[in-house]
Write a structure and sequence with these properties.
By secondary structure, the protein is mainly α. The protein has one domain. The strands form 2 sheets. Strands 1-4-5 form a 3-stranded mixed β-sheet. A two-stranded antiparallel ribbon has the order 2-3. Helix 1 crosses helix 5 and helix 6 runs parallel beside helix 17.
């Protein structure tokens, strides 16, 4: 996709991302694709249908990215965020994932589901969105009249020193194959993708569920389409065809004036869908008076999912306004939003941004984040279950330890509460 000037090329990226997100938002609403729901169904009732849909989406993205990258049609090296960075921030991936998993359970859904609920009329999710956006924005951007961010104040000094330098990249293809990384990436992605597809379709219930199949397929294809779009939008220049991020870096040499120059260059890099940092970008875009320079792929993705969900809700007449049913419900959602804001930014993504977009690059940090999110969510559900069954007479400590036993992460002898 080649354009004569930067503004036209950027517009193609922004509107292309919006349209893909629009379709994804409508389909997610229609099929009830939900990553938090996937964990809940498995933990609470033993139903793996939505989990298989999630894994199917991962498989589609994995296989598609592997094939397109091998053919030179997708760039997953210098991405936004930098999934394959040689600096493995494992502590941030794990802590952020755990916080996000707890948060999405308390707030009734991940970042993507929050947007889908807003489109359906859920005002609780609008509050969650505002809190996530505020925290995500100040995790990255300094406070007014200051050079400090929430990240630098609360996390950087004790978490970032724990990072491990793995060399040129942290993806499994590079770690296992070294100079032969391209071939290893292809083989690993195809093999892992095939295993995930096989696992998903092994279940007769999944095979018979058109919604689960459609939801996983469309989400996986949407992630793949975003990678392809953002990797292939280019601008003609006297030095040849360049990607948007490269044009931005050489703006003074390639552009005639500052007209149309974005505020930042990193959000122009190859990327796919993620929804926590983009919520912060959306807040910054609104606070900045809707300046075009602040408009990013992430902002358009957020808008697209909400509008897609709204259109589907109006089409099937399911739109209805919802609000908190009690003070406790409000507190749970707000606490969950805070945890998602911190966790999603720390971990560089959410159940879509890391667990699908990130894993499609085979980044080790993405796998760590996925596992931590799943564990955080599952443990929270166990704690809430025991607190409900025992009517809050059971302490959080006992409920947590018993939850770890239920998940087979501790021996049975550590059980503190009987399963009812």
């Amino acid at each position: 996709m080649l354009f004569e000037d930067f503004i036209a090329a950027e517009a193609a990226l922004l509107w292309g991302g919006f349209l893909i997100a629009l379709v994804m938002g409508a389909v997610i609403h229609k099929t009830n694709f939900c990553t938090m729901g996937a964990v809940s169904d498995l933990i609470n009732i033993g139903d793996s249908g939505r989990l298989r849909a999630w894994l199917f989406a991962i498989a589609i993205a994995l296989i598609g990215v592997a094939l397109l990258e091998y053919l030179g049609l997708v760039e997953t090296g210098a991405t936004f965020p930098p999934y394959r960075s040689g600096n493995l921030i494992w502590a941030e991936n794990i802590l952020g994932g755990l916080l996000f998993g707890v948060g999405m359970t308390l707030a009734s859904g991940c970042g993507n589901k929050t947007l889908v609920r807003i489109g359906g009329g859920n005002m609780k999710s609008l509050v969650v969105f505002a809190i996530i956006g505020l925290i995500a924005y100040f995790m990255i951007n300094p406070f007014p009249d200051s050079d400090q961010t929430l990240m630098s104040l609360l996390f950087y000094d004790w978490l970032r020193p724990l990072a491990i330098n793995l060399g040129d990249s942290q993806d499994l293809g590079y770690l296992l194959g070294g100079d032969a990384a391209p071939n290893y990436r292809l083989v690993i992605s195809l093999a892992l993708g095939a295993l995930l597809v096989g696992f998903a379709f092994k279940s007769r219930d999944f095979r018979c569920s058109a919604d689960n199949i459609l939801g996983g397929l469309v989400v996986g294809l949407a992630v793949l389409a975003a990678w392809y779009l953002s990797s292939n939008v280019q601008v003609e220049s006297f030095d040849g065809n360049v990607r948007l991020a490269e044009f931005y870096a050489d703006w003074d040499m390639l552009a005639d004036s500052d007209e149309g120059k974005p505020a930042l260059g990193r959000p122009l890099s190859p990327q796919s869908f993620s929804f926590i940092n983009p919520m912060g970008q959306t807040l910054g875009y609104a606070a900045g008076g809707f300046e075009r320079a602040l408009l990013t792929f992430g902002v358009m993705a957020v808008s697209g999912v909400v509008l897609g969900s709204l259109l589907w809700a109006l089409l099937v007449r399911s739109f209805r306004i919802e609000w908190f049913c009690s003070l406790r419900d409000a507190v749970n959602h707000m606490v969950g939003a805070v945890l998602m804001g911190f966790g999603g930014t720390l971990a560089l993504g959410c159940t879509i941004g890391q667990a699908i977009s990130g894993i499609s690059t085979l980044a080790l940090g993405s796998f760590l984040t996925f596992g931590a999110i799943f564990l955080g969510s599952a443990l929270t559900m166990k704690v809430l279950y025991y607190r409900m069954v025992y009517e809050d007479e059971a302490g959080i400590g006992k409920a947590l330890i018993t939850g770890l036993v239920d998940l087979r992460l501790l021996p049975e002898r550590f059980r503190r509460l009987e399963l009812v």
